């Protein structure tokens, strides 16, 4: 097969982790006689520096033309402490999500048997965790009207959802639940927010179409607590944009490192794969960041975007072996030897 992949390395550790993912994908493609045509494109602070805009039109064209997009990370500290900055790298990410119509962000959380004790949570609480968040990604407070009034002394961010937005995300949730343990949790704040009441009402009305799925409705604050107490009790969780942003960072603690968790952002036509971690600027250029979240995102890409299951499995298997054999970066190495980002990539390629 010929695979056309847009490559958006982005900022911070993005380029380093993306390099490893490219090496691993090429090695797997080689094994199975696929050819990957990588098309690099600018995004984030790197794009602002080059062309003054974090998601340039040219990048958008490249993404649209590709079969899938592999994305590193976005963000640069020089913008974080400057609330007056007119363009910010993150705007590029939001624009990209919106323009590519990536309304569903799939964020799995699972544990690796060899890493259970890396999690700050107790083994008996997290063993066997295997859950998936479906976070709505192109609506809600992230995209509502925002601004200042009263000479800048009052600020507002509106949260808006339409029934159609909720329905298309929930549909993916029900469908995913059907392929797993048929348990779906709708996370909201329906005791306070009108948008949450629309979510709950919409999902309730869809229940009859999926009679086998057992649906629960839980408030986001309670989920935040139960997620680290009994993560095992969840399977598929659907939620709105901001709640999903917060809960998926929390969930990554279960797996032991943010550097491990992959994600997919999907819409009707476009597919994008990215690690859930950010650009980790303190580590940029040091060859110390964990490349596994990006590599596991590439595995999701093989499986979902290209329907190449064996290739995906080969990546996951070799990643598991690297963890078992302690070929890991400093976030996971404890008092053992820490391998460099590129050394982990090389080891994976050799073992493929
Ligand atoms: C994420 C990130 C982004 C988000 C930021 C970088 C805008 O935290 O993908 O979870 O809030 O969606
Ligand atoms: Mg986030």
Beta-strand percent range: 15-25%
In spatial order, strands of the major sheet run: 2-1-3-12-11-4-5-10-8-9
Number of domains: 2
Q: And the CATH topology of the largest domain?
A: Isopropylmalate Dehydrogenase
Radius of gyration: 20 Å
Question: First CA to last CA: what distance?
Answer: 19 Å
- CATH architecture type of the largest domain: 3-Layer(aba) Sandwich
CATH class of the largest domain: Alpha Beta
CATH H-level superfamily title of the largest domain: Isopropylmalate Dehydrogenase
Number of helices: 14
Which small compounds were modeled alongside the protein? Answer: 3-isopropylmalic acid, magnesium ion
Shape designation: globular
Unreliable spans:
none
Note the run of SSEs as H and E.
Answer: EHEHHEHHEHEEEHEHEHEHEEHHHH
**Could you tell me the number of beta strands?**
12
| Helix share bin | 40-55%
Blueprint (SSEs and pairs):
Elements: E1 2-10, H1 14-31, E2 35-40, H2 45-51, H3 57-65, E3 68-73, H4 77-80, H5 89-99, E4 104-110, H6 123-126, E5 130-136, E6 146-149, E7 154-157, H7 163-178, E8 183-188, H8 194-206, E9 214-219, H9 220-229, E10 236-239, H10 241-255, E11 262-266, E12 271-275, H11 292-305, H12 309-324, H13 330-333, H14 341-351
Parallel strand pairs: 1-2, 1-3, 3-12, 5-10, 8-9, 8-10
Antiparallel strand pairs: 4-5, 4-11, 6-7, 11-12
Structure commentary:
There is one protein chain. By secondary structure, this protein is of the alpha/beta class. It folds into two domains: 1-118 and 257-352, Isopropylmalate Dehydrogenase, CATH 3.40.718; 120-255, Isopropylmalate Dehydrogenase. The protein contains 14 helices and twelve strands. It has helices at 14-31, 45-51, 57-65, 77-80, 89-99, 123-126, 163-178, 194-206, 220-229, 241-255, 292-305, 309-324, 330-333, 341-351, and strands spanning 2-10, 35-40, 68-73, 104-110, 130-136, 146-149, 154-157, 183-188, 214-219, 236-239, 262-266, 271-275. The strands form two sheets. The protein has a ten-stranded mixed β-sheet, with helices on both faces. Strands 6-7 form a two-stranded antiparallel ribbon. A hairpin with a 4-residue loop joins β6 and β7. α1 (14-31) crosses α11. The two termini are 19 Å apart. The mean pLDDT is 96. Bound molecules: 3-isopropylmalic acid (IPM) and magnesium ion. 3-isopropylmalic acid (IPM) binds at residues 74-75, 90, 93, 245, 278.
């Amino acid at each position: 097969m010929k695979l056309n992949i847009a490559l958006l390395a982005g900022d911070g550790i993005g380029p380093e982790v993306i390099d490893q993912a490219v090496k691993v994908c090429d090695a797997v493609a080689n094994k199975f006689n696929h050819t990957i045509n990588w098309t690099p494109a600018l995004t984030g602070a790197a794009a602002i520096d080059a062309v003054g805009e974090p998601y340039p039109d040219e990048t958008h064209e490249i993404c649209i033309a590709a079969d899938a997009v592999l994305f590193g990370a976005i963000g640069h500290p020089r913008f974080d402490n400057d609330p007056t900055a007119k363009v910010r790298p993150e705007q590029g990410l939001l624009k990209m999500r919106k323009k590519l119509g990536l309304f569903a962000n799939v964020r799995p959380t699972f544990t690796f048997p060899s890493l259970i004790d890396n999690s700050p949570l107790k083994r008996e609480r997290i063993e066997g965790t295997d859950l998936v968040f479906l976070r709505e990604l192109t609506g809600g407070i992230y995209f509502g009207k925002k601004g200042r009034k009263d000479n800048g002394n009052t600020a507002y961010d509106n949260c808006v959802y339409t029934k159609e937005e909720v329905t298309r995300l929930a549909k993916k949730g029900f469908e995913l639940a059907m392929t797993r343990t048929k348990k779906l949790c709708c996370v909201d704040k329906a005791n306070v927010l009108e948008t949450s009441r629309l979510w709950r009402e919409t999902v309730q009305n869809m229940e009859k179409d999926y009679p086998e799925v057992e649906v629960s409705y839980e408030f986001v604050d309670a989920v935040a607590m139960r997620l680290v107490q009994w993560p095992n009790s969840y399977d598929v969780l659907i939620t709105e944009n901001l709640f999903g942003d917060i809960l998926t960072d929390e969930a990554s603690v279960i797996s032991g490192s943010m550097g491990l968790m992959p994600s997919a952002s999907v819409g009707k036509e476009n597919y994008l794969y990215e690690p859930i971690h950010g650009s980790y600027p303190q580590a940029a250029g040091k060859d110390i960041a964990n490349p596994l979240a990006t590599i596991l995102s590439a595995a999701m890409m093989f499986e979902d975007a290209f329907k190449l299951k064996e290739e995906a499995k080969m990546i996951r298997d070799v990643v598991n072996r690297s963890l078992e054999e302690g070929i890991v970066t400093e976030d996971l190495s404890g008092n053992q030897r820490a391998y460099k980002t590129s050394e982990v990539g090389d080891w994976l390629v050799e073992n493929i």
